Amino acid sequence: MSHAVQGVDQDTSVWGWVKSIVSWLLLLVVLAILALTIVIPRLTGSTPYTVLTGSMRPTYPPGTLIVVKPEDPAALVAGDAITFQKESGNPEVVTHRIIMVRQNSQGETTFVTQGDANPSPDNPIVPEQVRGKVWYSVPYMGYVNSLITGKQRALMITIVVGGLFVYAAFMFVGAFRERGRPRDDVPEVDTDNADTVVLQAVDPGAAVSRSAHRRTNGGSRW
Predict the structure, then answer these.
(1) Does the bond joining 58 to the residue before it have cis omega, within 30 degrees of 0?
(2) Do 132 and 68 form a contact (C-beta atoms < 8 A)?
(3) What's the whole-model pTM score?
(4) Fewest C-beta atoms under 10 Å: which of 33, 112, 131, 205?
(5) Positions of the chain with pLDDT lower than 50, given as ranges
(6) CB count in 10 Å sphere of residue 202
(7) Angle at 84 between CA 82 and CA 89, to 5 degrees
(8) Is the Cα dihedral 76, 81, 87, 90 positive or negative?
(9) CA distance 107 to 104
(10) Count of CA atoms in the C-beta half-sphere (13 A) of 48
């Protein structure tokens, strides 16, 4: 019987570890997403953008969050994905890939870009139109980024980070209490004598016979 109880305790312990590992993995995933979409761009001076069209499929499909980092135009080469103003002075931006870097006789540089899914190139642009180079991207997070304003983003950071710390503390305290909780004492059964115990319980006549024998021997001594 003791072995059956120990088996249940072991399964419960394994299940508890599984739940703990899954919880921590989810926590790390949420923290990673928060860092990639909000914290890192702020710390590095980068800008997150949401891809709205399919011109850069399959690399950056609609809904992708791209983080654009400022880059020296002189360091840009063919193959780089850049974000640039469609027209100089126009705040509307586009993210396409450089397919050619040109330089005229006066030393002025222009970039020819084209969307990965577009059949034809764009009009050449000048370095002043370039906002930066795509640093990294996070699939599907662009829609969330479009719905959140600056103030909402700051509030979300505070709420999410605070909530994650509270959750982590709760999980840590729960695990600590679970480890410190004493287990119920279960008597160990000696498997070598298990048959003897069962025979004594099943054969009450043998116990009565031994009791009568003890009483008889006791009377002879007196």
Answers:
(1) yes
(2) yes
(3) 0.64
(4) 205
(5) 2-11, 186-187, 189, 191, 193-203, 207-209, 211-213, 215-216, 218-222
(6) 8
(7) 165
(8) negative
(9) 5
(10) 29
